[in-house]
Design a protein that fits this description.
This protein has three helices and no strands. α2 packs antiparallel against α3. It is an all-alpha fold. The relative contact order is 0.16. The protein has a domain of 56 residues.
Length: 94
């Protein structure tokens, strides 16, 4: 049996013919990054916010590319956190 982490740690493979960045920019993100929020904690989400804040000072197109990647990383992190909590609850119930 081959284990697949799609839906747990990732959304699946990059579609053929697209670069990683192109596939990332094509996503519709449910979880939106708020760079003005400062949790002051060493977390994945705060790391993505800091990348976004640093990118603000960079020229285009680097700024937009880094912001797209930070936003996607933030979204992936939130999705993975939610899924891991669901799995943990399933284990606790079993």
């Amino acid at each position: 049996m081959k284990l697949d982490e799609t839906g747990i740690t990732n959304l699946g493979p990059v579609p053929e013919g697209l670069t990683f960045l192109e596939a990332t920019k094509a996503l519709t993100l449910k979880h939106r990054i708020n760079p003005d929020h400062h949790s002051k904690r060493l977390t994945v989400c705060e790391t993505q916010r800091e990348i976004w804040r640093i990118a603000d000072g960079l020229p285009e197109p680097v700024r937009s590319d880094l912001k797209a990647l930070a936003a996607a990383g933030y979204h992936y992190g939130k999705c993975m956190d939610l899924r891991m909590k669901q799995l943990k609850a399933m284990l606790a119930d079993g």
